[in-house]
Design brief:
The chain is α+β, with helices and mostly antiparallel strands and 141 residues long. The chain is built from three helices and four strands. It has a single domain, classed as 2-Layer Sandwich (Alpha-Beta Plaits).
């Protein structure tokens, strides 16, 4: 009985889509019953500068227009967000943010475009980081 339960549990886990992390930030492609296997990447951009005024709506929109849209012409979604984290000093930090949602092919061009956006934003707006979250997705239009 225990053996059957264990075997069944392993089968359920295997079929649930759980996978080990892949080297090189690659996302495992899902097997799609409907739609195409793609990647969903969400980038989180903080709007506070370490020194000086916060990044304005006009500055953000200029970044989207000049840097994001040319790299991801097929489409994108931007959400207003409020981020918070525990700083190195032990204090809670909060800031307004933007979340950029991209649905894209799992290919070298997309990877280069995403990493270019992260680098540009950090340099242009003196940011320590731009958080990236990747997930496999089945996409149908």
């Amino acid at each position: 009985m225990v053996s059957r339960v264990f075997t069944f549990s392993l089968l359920v886990l295997a079929l649930s889509g759980c996978t080990a992390p892949r080297p090189g930030n690659q996302v495992a492609a899902p097997v799609c019953a409907v739609g195409d296997a793609m990647t969903q990447t969400t980038l989180y951009f903080g709007l506070n500068r370490p020194q000086g005024a916060a990044i304005t709506e006009a500055e953000w929109q200029a970044f989207v227009d000049a840097d994001v849209t040319p790299r991801f012409k097929d489409g994108l979604t931007v959400f207003a967000a409020k981020g918070q984290w525990l700083g190195n000093d032990g204090k809670l930090a909060r800031e307004n943010s933007r979340a950029l949602l991209l649905i894209h092919a799992t290919d070298k061009a997309s990877e280069q475009g995403i990493e270019a956006l992260r680098t540009l934003y950090k340099q242009r707006f003196t940011q320590d980081s731009v958080m990236r979250v990747d997930a496999p997705a089945c996409v149908a239009f």
